[in-house]
Amino acid sequence: MGRRASDQDKIYRKMGEGTFGQVLECWDRERKEMVAIKIVRAVNKYSDAAMIEIDVLQKLARNDATGKHCVQIRNWFDYRNHICIVCEKLGPSLYDFLRKTAYRPFPIDLVRELGEQLLESVAFMHGLKLIHTDLKPENILLVSSEDAKLAENKDGSFSKKVPKSSAIKLIDFGSTAYDHQDCSYIVSTRHYRAPEVILGHGWSYPCDIWSIGCILVELCSGETLFQTHENLEHLAMMERVLGPLPRHMLERADHHAQKYIRRGRLNWPEGATTRESMRAVLKLPRLQNLVMQHVDHSAGDLIGLLQGLLAYEPSARLTAQEALSHRFFRRHRERRSL
């Protein structure tokens, strides 16, 4: 166990807040560095998740000497029943960066750099038999807070902000699962949730890969791919963007998900609850069109990669390691080495 609360000398500001509690930026006078302290609400389920997170962070640190992939834990302590996790201080999340720049899409070369690191970090976790289960732009932090301006026109008349450094690290391991755990419960934040999770098939490593596919689309379009709060609408959106769900996957739906299926296909639009819901699905473009609206060069390679990350059948989805060998990354690496 770590040190007492008083050893963290001075609180500078609140960095973030969530259902779990809050994150404070503090000066650690022993290490003489700024740190982020996650202070968890004194509620059993959040305390339990915090203990899982500490266990995972320590395992990651033991296996990642350079601290390249995931946020580094410094120590932890219990302060009046609040679990407090002390970590290195990083920059803003990809979500915060997008929000502060009015959800302007990232340039494709930056998406490639972020995607490569994200897949490397997930391949590293999967190699340790860990499944993150809650990958989303909020849980991917830029290492640095600095940004740079990128001229958009030839004369530089219009510029947009991009991160100065593309280095990122994963955070939030409170939902991380070991691959031998029970995998029947619901995981992932709604918009990044894989079809096998919604259909109640159980899940494993591929659920992280689906989330990465959704994240990459969001980074190059500036918008959440599946902006929905309801299961049937979510599945209908998937079909709109990616084509029909395989019949055998629908037929294997558990008793909770059977109400979304009729005669071996999705009960849509018949089962839609509102007109707005039907409109929300109809306005979505096909994956190829969506990418080509936002990406100038490398669009074909990116579409190919996304089709592999967003394959409906988990066993047909690329692994993180396979995705890293995809030509979307490989061609770029070859150009760099010339």
UniProtKB/TrEMBL annotation:
Cellular-component GO terms for this entry: nucleus
SUPFAM superfamilies from the UniProt entry: Protein kinase-like (PK-like)
Alphabetized UniProt keyword annotations: ATP-binding, Kinase, Nucleotide-binding, Serine/threonine-protein kinase, Transferase
Matches recorded under Pfam families: Pkinase
Keyword ATP-binding: yes
Catalytic activity reported: L-tyrosyl-[protein] + ATP = O-phospho-L-tyrosyl-[protein] + ADP + H(+); L-threonyl-[protein] + ATP = O-phospho-L-threonyl-[protein] + ADP + H(+); L-seryl-[protein] + ATP = O-phospho-L-seryl-[protein] + ADP + H(+)
Top EC category: transferase
Entry-linked InterPro entries: CLK_kinases, Kinase-like_dom_sf, Prot_kinase_dom, Ser/Thr_kinase_AS
Domain Protein kinase: 9-329
Entry EC number(s): 2.7.12.1
Family recorded in the similarity comment: Belongs to the protein kinase superfamily. CMGC Ser/Thr protein kinase family. Lammer subfamily.
The protein's name: dual-specificity kinase
Species of origin: Triticum urartu (Red wild einkorn)
